[in-house]
Amino acid sequence: MGALDSLSEYISDYFRVSRKRRKRKVMQTVNIKVKMDCDGCERRVKNAVSSMKGVRSVEVNRKIHKVTVSGYVEPKKVLKRVERTGKKAEIWPYVPYNMVAYPYAVGTYDKKAPAGYVRKSEQSQLQLLPGAPDDNFVSLFSDENPNACTVM
Description:
Layout: H1 2-18, E1 28-34, H2 39-50, E2 55-61, E3 66-71, H3 75-83, E4 89-91, E5 94-96, E6 117-119, H4 133-140, H5 148-151
Antiparallel strand pairs: 1-3, 1-4, 2-3, 5-6
């Protein structure tokens, strides 16, 4: 019986390893910038994206050239599907104006950006680390520092 048990374990382990588990896709929202001029362009992009597997909703805003897709989709696949319609498309490169520390930093301000948005960039997202030299100067000249008058 020992030989049969070890043989059955070997076979069952072989079949367990050979089966691959499918990864579950995550529900996400993908924003894409698409150059659209007319109702026909809008309809063509909306129909192309809504026919994809896993798409739950598609919103098209022609005024700011934005397509929002929600569902169990991957951003790269949505982008490729939109590009197949013949339209120039890219992942949405803008963030709201009030979410940026330095909206007029080089590479952030974009004249073509919709109202209330600026372009994403690393320079605009900079935040001072605690203990940085700039932080020391701020505390040096604060009203709470009793020696501030002697330094000035």
